[in-house]
Amino acid sequence: MQQTFTQLVVLLFIGLSTSFHIRMTCVNKGMKMQSESKPDKISKPFSVQKLRKNISDAGQAGLLSYGLLNLVYYTSATAFAWKLSNNPPSILSEMSFQKKLYVVFRKLSNVLLIVWTGSQVTKVFRLLGAIALSPFMEKWITVTQKRFAFKSRNELFWFTVAGILLVTTSFYIYLILSAALFHA
């Protein structure tokens, strides 16, 4: 059941993503696929490229805002999908630790596929949120640099990036080990 759902989500995502880049045209009796050679003349107000440029124009504040929103999205979506995914049979209590890790990593790969698919859907919203939060992040950078006596904005930036990576890595390590050791 879980694999069928995962396959359905993947097929749905592939179908949606290719429908934007490929158009179907009828030729004689069958259907022929042709690559889209010209972009649509309709202006896209929320194209990902425009939003990424806005974030890069916001500088370090925009990047930190986007990083924090990604941290929140990926950890919460992974926790939610992990909780909803079906648990392996109770026979896991008799398995060795290596076999439990194998089962946990298989479950994690299915969960991450679902989370990644969801991230493609929510990317525009996270980019918009990062653009909206960048003025507040700019204030936070200024205040934090003065309060904690960082020598430069770059030092504070990389310290914050390291913190984001540490929190994310700790979350996934905790998820894997707690599932393998206690209840997979």
Please provide a written account of the structure.
There is one protein chain. The protein has a two-stranded antiparallel ribbon. The chain starts with a helix and ends with a helix. It contains 5 helices and 2 strands. Helix 1 (2-19) packs across helix 4 (97-147) and helix 2 crosses helix 4. Mean pLDDT is 77; it is low at 1-41. The longest helix has 51 residues, at 97-147. The relative contact order is 0.13. The chain has helices at residues 2-19, 48-58, 60-84, 97-147, 153-183; strands at residues 22-27, 30-35. It is mostly helical and 184 residues long.
Topology:
Elements: H1 2-19, E1 22-27, E2 30-35, H2 48-58, H3 60-84, H4 97-147, H5 153-183
Antiparallel strand pairs: 1-2
Helix pairs in contact: 1-4, 2-3, 2-4, 3-4, 3-5, 4-5
Keywords:
disordered N terminus, single chain, mainly alpha, 184 residues, 7% strand, 2 strands, flat, 74% helix
Oligomer: single chain
Q: Could you give a short account of the major beta sheet?
A: 2 strands, antiparallel
Give the uncertain stretches in residue-range form: 1-41
Distance between the termini: 18 Å
Report strand order across the widest sheet: 1-2
Number of helices: 5
How much helix, percentage-wise, in residues? over 70%
Strand content: 5-15%
Assign the structural class, choosing from mainly alpha, mainly beta, alpha/beta, alpha+beta, or little secondary structure.
mainly alpha
Order of helices and strands: HEEHHHH
* Shape field: flat
Radius of gyration over alpha carbons? 22 Å
| Overall number of strands | 2
Mean of pLDDT: 77
